[in-house]
Structure formats: C-alpha cells, structure tokens
Amino acid sequence: MTVELPVKKLSDYSVFSKEDVEAIFELGKELKGLKVVHVNATAYGGGVAELLMTIVPLMRDAGLDASWEVLEAPMEFFNVTKKLHNTLQGADIEISEEEWELFERVNEQNARLLNLDADVVIIHDPQPAYIPYYRPDSNTKYIWRCHIDTSTPNLKVWNRLTSKMTKYQKALFHILEYVRPPFDKIAVEFPPSIDPLSPKNRELLEEELKIIAERFKINTSKPLITVVARFDPWKDLFSAIDVYRKVKERHDVQLAIVSAMAKDDPEGWIFFEDVLRYAGVDEDILFLTDLKGVGHLEVNAIQRLSTLGLHTATREGFGLVISEMMWKEHPVVARPVGGVKIQIDDGVNGYLRTSVEELSDAICDLLENKEKLSEFGKRAKEKVRRTYLSTAHVRRYLEVIKSVVK
C-alpha cells in the first residue's frame, strides 16, 4: 500500500538549521529525479511511521522521487514480527517453523504487491527484511534501516533472519554498538530525528495548553512527571510507577503515562491492562492514550505542561521521546540504555540513572533546584537543535544514498 503524504518545504526549516538545509539542496542537485522507496510495517503508531511522514516529503522537496510503501499483512504476521522484535533485543523466545513460513510468505507476497521499482529501496526493521531476497535481480540498491537495539540478540533467531539478508549495500543503526555480523562491513551510525514543525513538536499557544490541561485533568499547580512509551515490557512502566511513588514520598507530584496502541503490536493491549492494575486507584497517575483521544497535538501539550521527563526502558533502540521532551526545554531522567545514552549528557541536560532509588533521587534533585531544572532544560533543547532535527536526518539519508548509487 502506498501512503499518501503531506507537502513539506525544506525552506520552512531554515530557521532551525540553515546549514543543514543548504547541504540538502546541494545533495539534491546531484540526486535529482532518483527514485527512492521506503518500506515499513505500518503507516501509523510508533516512531518509524512518524519519521517517514516527515522524511519522505522533505526528500521530495530536495528533488528526489521519493515514496513510502506499507506491508499488506494479516494480524498473525504482526504476532510473529513482535516475537522477532523481542528476540532481536535478546528475549529467549522460540519462533516455530510455521511462524517462520508465515514471515517468509508475507515478505514474498509483498515483494510482488508493493510498488518497488526504484533506484534505491530502504527497508525499515525486520518486518519487511526479506523483500529484497524475493525481488528479481535488478539495478536496485537496498538499504536496511534498523530502529531497534540488536546489541545482544537471540543469536539463533538473528542468524536465521540475517541468512537471507544478503542484498543490502548499507545497514543503518542508531549507534554502532548495535552492529553485528553480517553487517559490520556495511554499517553506518544513523540516529533518527524529530520534526520541529509537526503537531507533536510545534510551538503551542497558552490557550491551547490550558484547554488540553483541563480536558485531561492535569493539575498545573503541581509538578508533572511524564513518561511517553508504548505498552511494551521493555519500557518497564512498572518501574516508572515505582519511581513516581518514591518521589511522591517527598513531593506532591503527578505522573502522566502517555502512549498510543500501535497496529503492529498486538501484545501491547495485554501489557496495558497489567500496568493499569499495577497503578491501582491513584488520581495523580494519568493514563493518557489514543483511547482517550490523545493524538500528536495532545502529546505535544502534555510534554510542554510537564516539569520533566522520565524514561525507564531497560532496552531502547533510540527513544525519540527523549528528544521530543528535550525539545520542549525539559530535562529527562532515564536509564542509560541504547540510544538514550547519546541524547542525554549526564549532569548537563538530564540524568542517567539505573535503579528506582537513583531515578527518584535524580528527579527530586531537579524538583528541589529550580535554577538547575531551567538550565538543564535550555541545554537539552540546544542539543536536539544541533543534532536530532529532521533536516540533519534528511542530510544523513542523502549522503548514504549518494554513497550507494555513486
């Protein structure tokens, strides 16, 4: 399925990073008319879909013939790929022969169904990873974009999955510690980005913030700790609740758990119920999800209404929600995992801590020192502006595409 895309203009982003925009236009002259197709699992829910909704239109504005295709697959397929996702992050889960056959069959079908006649095809994550294997030999160049933490995968699954991933010219990982054979010779460190002009990140008026605070019963007179995460065991939302409870012993605070239920994550519903039960009845724990009408604009407002961010994931591919919160001038207290480590500079624009006690102490330190809270927030925004905005991301893509086709 081809995804319909909005029109976006690179010139609108010059106010944030003029240097990156100028570099993109120069690269666009060299790559003008090149046909590039991105392929992923879903058009909504999750960070990859959000990224592509900005990246592909900006590639078009740079002069490329860019498009976005989404897999056509039954729910049973996503049950299997969720297992794949977990095993690539280290889970000891068995994938049956029947499940492998379904995975391969859906990839083979999509290799025929999707519009993939292009100079460069960029495959995102494991769900469509076998599509190049089932495409006839051609001049198409393939790039694999991995958005998850593969530093310590289940090797049985990793070796089987990658055995048919032989047609890729480049493999892009958030950080180099995720790279493993057979991609060590073609790997590129490639962090993602946030769109500063999207509904999720644009500036908001005070009136907009007030309306959303009232709608979701956010008490603006006391500190708000916000976690934005999918309902996924790796996000360890139980620890987030434990941290909140420890902080609550010293400060009158609220906790917002903000999430969306992604189409390609059926087990998320089960975990959602588990977390709800663990939270119990506490009017200061707010579950703010798309089930209550929380969309991108609402996430933006909730983050701006926050005092600081909390991220308790035990494994994390990158964690764009960290950059989103930092962009709103709020520090984040998080566990030092995956791509989180390169976003937060410990003791400079946030804190990296591991245990519930350490995380709660770090939050209390910021709540008790308003000047430090403000200074950390300013540094956090500047770090994102320099490194993790859409323009820097598009520039990196065009540089990799150029290296592949030239």
From TrEMBL:
GO molecular function, one term: glycosyltransferase activity
Record keywords: Carbohydrate metabolism, Glucose metabolism, Glycosyltransferase, Transferase
GO biological process: glucose metabolic process
Domain Trehalose synthase N-terminal stretches: 38-179
Enzyme class: transferase
Annotated ranges, domain Glycosyl transferase family: 214-382
Domain of life: Bacteria
Pfam families listed in its UniProt record: Glycos_transf_1 (PF00534), TreT_GT1 (PF21269)
This enzyme's EC code(s): 2.4.-.-
PANTHER family per UniProt: SYNTHASE (CCG-9), PUTATIVE (AFU_ORTHOLOGUE AFUA_3G12100)-RELATED (PTHR47779)
Family recorded in the similarity comment: Belongs to the glycosyltransferase group 1 family. Glycosyltransferase 4 subfamily.
Subunit text: Homodimer.
Protein name: Glycosyltransferase
Top-level taxonomy: Bacteria, Thermotogati, Thermotogota, Thermotogae, Thermotogales
